[in-house]
Design goal:
Blueprint (H helix, E strand, L loop, with lengths): L3 E5 L7 H5 L5 E3 L5 H10 L3 E6 L9 H4 L2 E3 L4 H7 L6 E9 L10 E4 L20 H8 L2 H17 L7 E8 L5 H14 L4 E7 L3
Parallel strand pairs: 1-2, 1-3, 3-4, 5-7, 5-8, 6-7
Helix pairs in contact: 5-7, 6-7
Length: 205
């Protein structure tokens, strides 16, 4: 599976070498981007839009429409994840709202309505990868129902996306307990789907 990488932003050119190494076709846009992006859309081309650097304030430009907004320091890791692959990559990501929403989330799932292990003294120093925390979170009926319903939607929708990479982002307050347990469990479930590469990431641990 492959697709065009479109690189833009105030430091886009400086990141070019990293994305050339992905083995995917690359286009670097310097200056205003909105018109070129409209042309790509009109041509029906599949692409991943990456904006490197700060917001340049362009209406309907690369920052506003980016699939990934990164700093120059983030580029090597992103380029590695976007290497040419035969299968679609689905990332189940855990994050904390107090540290900001991940800008590249395809699906954003707020799990702060669940009971929080943080308020259990024995669980507070642990995180959602620990079996005790996982059991505390997943034994809640609302957590199981959320996972079942979301899994059903993902099984239907993932094959329809014309993108090489999707991110299902689970957010709780600190990104340590509820979001980690749910993202990890969903990664296991999605791994049972054929034709996908799946990874679990906990951004704030």
């Amino acid at each position: 599976m492959s697709g065009l990488i479109v690189l833009a932003g105030v430091e886009g050119a400086a990141a070019q070498a990293h994305f050339l190494a992905t083995g995917r076709p690359l286009e670097v846009i310097s200056g205003p981007t909105a018109e070129r992006l409209r042309q790509l859309d009109k041509e029906g081309l599949r692409y991943v839009l990456i904006h490197v650097g700060e917001d340049n304030g362009e209406a309907e430009g690369s920052y506003e429409r980016a699939h990934h907004r990164v700093t120059l320091a983030d580029v090597p890791e992103l380029a590695l994840r976007l290497r040419q692959r035969e299968k679609k990559l689905v990332t189940c990501l855990a994050f904390g709202y107090k540290n900001g929403v991940p800008p590249d989330a395809t699906w954003l799932v707020d799990v702060r309505f669940l009971d929080n292990p943080y308020w259990e003294e024995s669980l507070r120093p642990l995180d959602g990868r620990d079996p005790a925390v996982t059991e505390y979170v997943l034994r809640q009926p609302a957590a199981r129902e959320l996972l079942d319903r979301l899994e059903s939607v993902l099984r239907w929708s993932i094959p329809l996306y014309q993108r090489d990479e999707l991110t299902v982002a689970f957010g709780c307050t600190g990104g340590r307990h509820r979001s980690v347990a749910l993202a990890q469990e969903m990664a296991v479930r999605v791994s049972a789907m054929e034709g996908l590469d799946v990874e679990f990431r906990a951004r704030d641990l």
